[in-house]
Amino acid sequence: MKKFLLFTSKILVLAIVIAILLDFIYTAVYLQSSNRGKIDQVYNSENENYDVIILGSSRANNHFVSQMFKDKGLKTFNYGMSGGHLFEADLLLKLMIERHYKIKNVILEADLNLTNEHRADGISSKFLPYLHNSKIIKEHFSTEEDFNYLYYIPFYRYIKFDPQIGVREMFFQAIHKGTSHLQNLGYHALKDGKTGNMKNNIVSLKPLNHNKYYEEIKQICKENNINFIAIMTPMCENVVGMNYFEKVQKAYPEIHNYENVVIENKYFSSCGHMNDIGAKMFTARILKDFFPPSSPSPKVRESK
Amino acid sequence: MFFNSLAFAVFLPIVFFLYWFVFNKTKNTQNAVLIIASYYFYSCWDWRFLFLLVFSTFLDYYTGIRIEKSQTQKSRKFWFWLSIIVNLGFLGVFKYYNFFASSFAALLTGVGFKASPFLLDVVLPVGISFYTFHGLSYVIDIYYKRLKAEYNFVDYSLFVSYFPLLVAGPIERATHLLPQVKVKRTFDYEIAKEGIYQLIWGLLKKVVIADTCAAYANAIFDNYPSMNSLSLILGAIYFAFQIYGDFSGYSDMALGMSKLFGIDLLRNFNYPYFSRDIAEFWRRWHISLSSWFKDYLYIPLGGSKGGIWMKIRNTFIIFVVSGFWHGANWTYLAWGFINAVYFLPLLLLKKNRNNIESADLSWNIDSIKVRLNILITFLLSCVAWVFFRAKTITDAVSYLKRIVLNGEFSSQYLSNERYNYELLIMVCLFVLVEWNNRTKIEPISGKYSYLKLILCLTAIIAFGTYSDYKEFIYFQF
């Protein structure tokens, strides 16, 4: 029996050593890669200068056409992340500050994402390879329920979020296989939504009166002299529960309501996401209102 | 509590510790530990069904004794049929009632009558098909005087509810398992070590092969109308490896962990995808079920003796019943029927026992022929698996039709955000490992066992799917 216990102990130790080694290898690969996504690009860069940074979910990623900002002479990158919540937008901004980014304006898409303070696993997991290497990321995750597992159990984070940062993604990171996430200055254009869902019911949505991550983003901008522009972006015409945007306006008067700027379904790919034409119309309006040609710095606009 | 869950990783060492270190004095204490552990294990799914398990155990225990003690044939028959009817009655109510009721209603609707059948809103008790068959084989063996009745209730209960085999087999025979639980087990290092290797290999098959293949197979089967020919072919192959990895992985884990308690279980799989014909495939796939049906259904029906029509009848009965055992759906019946169609020519041409011996393969014409036969047998089984996996027979037929008619063999991006061909390397590697170790129970033992162990552990940690504990397919049967 002693022999057997020794044998099983050896297997256990072997498994732990393998997990530690794999963790080390995966992390090393992620630390040297910067062309797969917006998070690794920010993590592996420093001292970037931007006139405009766009943050938010897919409703930022698909709605702000960065090239139109660039055409106006504004160095811009759209860091909106499809599926992301404010948890991730906040962390990405913190990471930029940690990386000594010089940013003049932050445009934050703040509307449907004000309903929760949860992390979006699909996006937040992409920060996890850097958990042991970035104080900011560690602190941001420290209040999460599974933080101890993620931080202390070797390789656990790669197992738990295998589809996002597991072996396949690690392999592509290792061979520096690019993605489309960083093309078009981060903007992702959507096609016409002939097959998309043009109905939406948001009656059950309720904005939090004091969203922790929204407030943090606001605070970071204030502390770093960044002009903060929060915007509600358009929805299609068949939305039930449109008073949600009024509720947001009431709780956060500083958020600019652009929900009604583009309405017709032909400008949408799905109900919550405009197509490329809609996005261009919307961006033109944002540029006109906040970055008029005559104005050297962005115009501070009263909310509607 | 699944074998691949964290809870089980805690449960197993605790039971092991209690079994060998605390209650190891007599076989009674050893059996008591295993019984309590087994009932706890079963109650983790739904404690209410524990009563069903205990009742079923008691019924077969009692009727077994009554059959043996009966003085008249009439009395023997009474107790025998009581056990058969009650056992099959439970199975019928829980597993098949809704199927028959809705099929009958559909039939009535088809001929113009309006029918709204009364359907039961019950969950299928996990493992009911397995423990019912344990009990049935025991009672049948006593009735035919092949076995003496067991008078020790604890020993008998352990035979029925021993946790490694309780929910998904292998379907044990009393003649094999009961003698083992009737003696005190002593620890054997070599056997326990072999058990650990088998457990690890089974885990690898489940979390690396089966669960990864499942993601691809599901993405293809669930969207088959938009898939091209290549994706559909790959989908069938991925499902073939999913079900093999899932079920044989489970069996390996069950056999492996049982060795840790000094109990040997029946082998359930013997590299079935390396079979040279369908008859050999059925001698290698789910061996405990195939042999159960052979001994308790096929042979009593007359087997392959008698005239040609009797052979055909018996073949179809055994395969269709076997299909139906898997679940109450026409797709399982179709799967059984197709296998019967595959098997019948071999039986009628008396070639069903051609490939009993293992083949000695080299690079001559005969060996190439053997390899070709293996490939053909595998492809035939893949076609049958399409019926097993599809939701309806219409879906299965449309799936196969599309493979032929679509004619596109390009790469395709699937709903699981992967390309259809991405898994092929892993599947090929797995086949290669199994092929090179096809004479062994598992590939880890032997030369360079530590190196192979490291590779297996690395694969389990790095390539395993753990996002949720995926249920074993055969739990639903």
From TrEMBL, chain A:
Domain of life of the source: Bacteria
Protein name, UniProt field: SGNH/GDSL hydrolase family protein
Organism: Flavobacterium aquicola
Automatic annotation (TrEMBL), chain B:
Topology class, membrane: Multi-pass membrane protein
Similarity annotation: Belongs to the membrane-bound acyltransferase family.
Keyword annotations: Acyltransferase, Cell membrane, Membrane, Transferase, Transmembrane, Transmembrane helix
Transmembrane segments annotated in the record for this chain: 6-22, 34-58, 78-97, 118-144, 229-247, 332-349, 370-388, 419-437, 449-467
Entry GO terms, CC: plasma membrane
An MF annotation (GO) of this entry: acyltransferase activity
Highest taxon above the source species: Bacteria
Pfam families assigned to the protein according to its UniProt record, in alphabetical order: MBOAT
GO process annotations (BP): alginic acid biosynthetic process
Signal peptide: none
UniProt-recorded name of the protein: D-alanyl-lipoteichoic acid acyltransferase DltB (MBOAT superfamily)
Record's subcellular location: Cell membrane
